[in-house]
Design brief:
29% helix, alpha+beta, Cyclic Phosphodiesterase, Chain: A
Length: 197
């Protein structure tokens, strides 16, 4: 049995045993930690997408736009409590993002926008989560961190572009978000917020 299969089996077993012994289901939610734009930044992101010539694709709902910090996957209540304890202990500093480029990832067909330079404060925030969330049973992401906002999925290719007027995004908080599959957007729901600084 592969490690991932063993982990999934253990989660299901724990859920069944938790229900048997406590009478309560260990409900799982699909969670991630993220930067969440305020209305002004969200309008700016929409302006970037709407200003692209020849754009075709499935646009991200305005209220679903965000920058992922750490994807957590399916999380039961006990581990969610651990995540919230870790998040509450984070002492990151506020910073400002300059959203100054647009790109396209061919394999997932994602149209995105993001900063050409990731601030040190953001790098440190992501790194702190990678380290501290290990205590909650999460394995750190091995791929290099790429800060981006998904503008559209199933998009037609768009050439890389540097924006003439970068969008300034002051970041003063991060959030815990639950996602759902199916149904009409928005598909993301902010569960909790924490201030930086």
């Amino acid at each position: 049995m592969r490690p991932s299969s063993r982990l999934e089996y253990k989660r299901k077993f724990d859920a069944i045993m938790g229900t048997l012994f406590t009478g309560k289901s260990l409900v799982e939610e699909r969670l991630f930690l993220a930067l969440w734009p305020d209305p002004g930044v969200r309008r700016g992101l929409l302006g970037i997408r709407d200003g692209l010539s020849g754009f075709r694709g499935r646009p991200t709902h305005p209220e679903d736009m965000h920058i992922t910090l750490v994807f957590l996957g399916q999380v039961e209540q006990q581990r969610r409590a651990c995540v919230e304890q870790v998040a509450a202990a984070v002492r990151g500093r506020p910073f400002e993002l300059q959203i100054d480029q647009v790109g396209f990832w061919g394999r997932p067909r994602i149209l995105w926008s993001g900063p050409s330079t990731v601030p040190e404060e953001l790098k440190q925030l992501v790194q702190e989560f990678k380290i501290t969330l290990a205590d909650c049973g999460f394995e750190p992401e091995r791929r290099p961190y790429a800060a981006h906002v998904t503008l559209a999925r199933k998009a037609r290719p768009v050439g890389f572009q540097e924006l003439e007027r970068p969008l300034s995004w002051p970041v003063e908080e991060f959030v815990l978000v639950a996602s759902r599959t199916g149904g009409d957007p928005p598909r993301y729901r902010v569960l909790k917020r924490w201030r930086l600084g």
